[in-house]
């Protein structure tokens, strides 16, 4: 068994493609995904914030207060005069205009006399833009000034004004600390990256040890050796599992390292605070929980690989396995599903829930017994199925 393990692992180490999935992919993918997302999102938001907006005012277009408010931000706004024949809705859809303000006629700033003033803002909100936010930022101070004028006309004190604007004030007192708040948001995505990269780390060697052996014609040589079939399976299983465990270890280390680097470079203090609040034990438990998960993946991948007629067919089967892996992670993200009761025993979903609880700092460590037990049981059943598969000539020589 250990000779098979040594042989298979040495072949993995010599294979450049396997090293990419085991080491390069976990180290590079995480920073590229996070850093790329932050970079492009920041650039898009900055472009939307600094874009010179073309606009027009229709209806009562000569309201001095509105024109004055818009002209104060004149360097970022460009006014266009429309004729009666021009279709401003079509112009907005064609990107010839960014927004149009329709001002009511008549327009009376004495809101106690005129009532509420309704100004219609036409813009295209299908893409990433900040038209509504920027126009609101310009007109909101004007609306507040009209409000103060009405309060002064009514002779209301400041406390009476506040009571009218907000008759009942609800003060939010969140008893959860920052780690729990941000852990709930970030921790739910952690299993997605970890499971995916561990699966990718085990997929390449699994394809080669089953379907690859068939294509090269070396499987028959192994089968005629005096070694029992189950030892042959265990040797391949441990090699695939080690590949996935290395990918898991590199992934966890890479995520911790690059998150600190990215957050410090972008001055995202809450991420540094969150990581500093997570203890070493929690990081170790995250890694240890990935070990039985990798065993599940390794057993299942080995069975699919030995069933496939060719390397290409094995890759197609394993591609579908990614969709199966996503389902338990989605379950863990659904509201109302917590690491309690029956969910402690649901394989993969319980690990995803536990990772979120570890990041939040609310982990019930007693539940680890059920998590490790159920996941190890599934891995053992799948491994036994792989041994059964290897004992069937119809499967080996399809």
UniProtKB/TrEMBL annotation:
Name of this chain's protein: ABC transporter permease subunit
Pfam families, A to Z: ABC2_membrane_2
Record bears the keyword Transmembrane helix: yes
Segment forming the signal sequence: none
Keywords recorded for this protein, A-Z: Membrane, Transmembrane, Transmembrane helix
Residues passing through the membrane, by range: 20-40, 237-263, 283-308, 320-345, 365-390
Top-rank taxon, per record: Bacteria
Native organism taxonomy: Bacteria, Pseudomonadati, Pseudomonadota, Gammaproteobacteria, Alteromonadales
